[in-house]
Write a structure and sequence with these properties.
The chain is mainly alpha-helical and about 250 residues long. The chain contains ten helices and two strands, in the order H-H-H-H-H-H-H-H-E-E-H-H. The N and C termini lie far apart (about 55 Å).
Length: about 250
């Protein structure tokens, strides 16, 4: 196992800096394409940048796609955020954030950073989905929300060697789909964030923190009660003070 880890250890020296340079160039290329209104080409480049997923036997494709799903969600979401931003400065900020993701966040492998990757991927995916497809069919929003939640949960749970990772990820995906189906009939927005995105992010973050603390044997009854109370309070506040008269059917 140690030999394998050494074999796939990131290269140092010129090749390492060359690789970092390519990573930084990608957000710059995406920025230029979006400014030129070639959004579809920018989305295609994000997908093509993951060509190594298919550089193996077809039986490994599903595993590779699942492993790279969070990175794809972030990349595609950044392009959509940039395309819906009217300010060039804001588009530059999105490009800079994508560069930080590629250089700093994505290569990290610790439990904390892997958890952060899953949370960022789910958040970006849900924000982009409801930003672009808010007026889409209910079944489409339901399936897409469930898929994003499943992929985010699977990325999070796989880093803990959870034996029931698939079952728990399916459960979270089903919950996200059910919530999306229910709320999509009265789809509310808080500026750029849709109500399903806010609720799923709040609940998902709280449950992930509880799981993380329990994994490290740092979850006491008091802490668990506090987190559950905070999550319930946030959900009640969001639902109670929402203007249900403004809706997107």
């Amino acid at each position: 196992m140690r030999l394998l880890l050494q074999k796939f250890k990131p290269a140092n020296g010129f090749s390492h800096f060359f690789h970092l340079g390519l990573l930084v160039i990608l957000p710059a290329v995406i920025f230029v394409l979006v400014r030129l209104s070639f959004v579809q080409l920018a989305l295609s480049i994000i997908v093509l940048s993951k060509w190594r997923m298919f550089a193996v036997r077809p039986r490994f494709w599903p595993t590779n796609i699942r492993a790279n799903a969070v990175d794809l969600m972030v990349g595609l979401s950044i392009v959509l955020f940039m395309s819906h931003s009217t300010s060039p400065l804001l588009q530059i900020i999105w490009a800079a954030l994508y560069a930080v993701w590629l250089v700093v966040v994505k290569p990290a492998s610790g439990l904390f950073m892997t958890s952060a990757q899953a949370f960022i991927g789910q958040l970006c995916g849900l924000m982009a989905l409801y930003l672009v497809w808010a007026a889409g069919p209910v079944y489409g929003l339901t399936l897409a929300t469930g898929l994003i939640c499943f992929l985010g949960a699977r990325h999070f749970l796989d880093s803990f060697d959870e034996p029931y990772a698939r079952m728990l990820a399916y459960f979270w995906g089903y919950f996200g789909a059910a919530l999306a189906w229910l709320l999509s009939h009265w789809l509310l927005f808080y500026r750029l964030i849709a109500q399903p995105t806010l609720l799923l992010s709040t609940l998902g973050y709280g449950l992930a923190v509880l799981y993380y603390l329990d994994h490290d044997d740092r979850l006491s009854k008091t802490v668990r009660r506090q987190f559950i109370f905070i999550m319930i309070a946030i959900v009640l506040v969001v639902l109670t003070f929402s203007d249900w008269g403004d809706k997107v059917v």
